[in-house]
Amino acid sequence: MALASRILSNSKQLHAGQFLLQRKHAVPVRFFAKEAARPALKGDEMLKNIFLEVKKKFETAMGILRKEKITIDPDDPAAVSQYAKVMKTVREKADMFSESQRIQYTIQTRTQGIPDARTYLLTLKEIRIKRGLSDDLGAEAMMMDALEKVEKELKKPLMRNDKKGMGLLVAEFDKINKKLGIRKEDLPKYEEQLEHKIAKAQLEELKKDALEAMETQKKREEFKDEEMVDVKSIDIRNFI
């Protein structure tokens, strides 16, 4: 149960500076469609539907985890890749967001209606910090410098509906992307790397939890003479 709950939660071991540099954070239409077409419901009925939807996703995830072999070895690239593959299957079958899609959706919803470029960039920074993301590339400082340059040229704050001004800012962002070696066509690769880091972080957490559980059990009188098993040999399917 703990594993499935962990899958349904967010991971914070990410590096997403490259995603924040993109001018448009497009979210697939199906993710908006989920929320858009729902009829107005009474409170009790709405809560019931939410519960049933979460229950369905949980049962779907559990069904997959009961079948797939997971090796708790965050130091083995093959084990991490297999775990990432299983998690991808869970997300697809249970119709759940990937972490990058969560980031994209959060940006889309949080920045909708923001009129000026400065507030938009500050909101991106706030989202990054709240999600525990790091800006190892220094992208935010570069973007703010670019905005300062454009606003100085315009001699006024840059509004997002100012096509000419936004064109100048996008051109500056393109220069930053080029300087950092970030290409739009490489975004799928960045997403894969992101999910791989998440998989490794989750396996590390699972390993830690398993070791702590075994240490606790060994302190009990009936298990004090038992040898601890290798975490890598544990078959999670036996505990679900």
Structural features, described:
This protein is 63% helix and 0% strand. With 240 residues, it is mainly alpha-helical. α5 packs across α10 (187-218), α6 packs antiparallel against α7 (117-130) and α8 (139-154) runs antiparallel to α9. It is elongated, with a radius of gyration of 22 Å. The protein starts with a helix and ends in a 22-residue tail after the last helix.
Number of helices: 10
Q: Radius of gyration from the CA trace?
A: 22 Å
Shape: elongated
Q: Give the overall average pLDDT.
A: 80
Note the main sheet: none
The count of β-strands is: 0
Q: Which stretches of 5+ consecutive residues score pLDDT under 50?
A: 1-37
Whole-number count of domains: 2
- The helix fraction, in percent, is 55-70%
The N- and C-terminal alpha carbons lie at a distance of 6 Å
Strand content: under 5%
Coiled coil: 189-220
Pfam families: Mt_ATP_synt
Protein name: ATP synthase 24 kDa subunit, mitochondrial
Keywords: Coiled coil
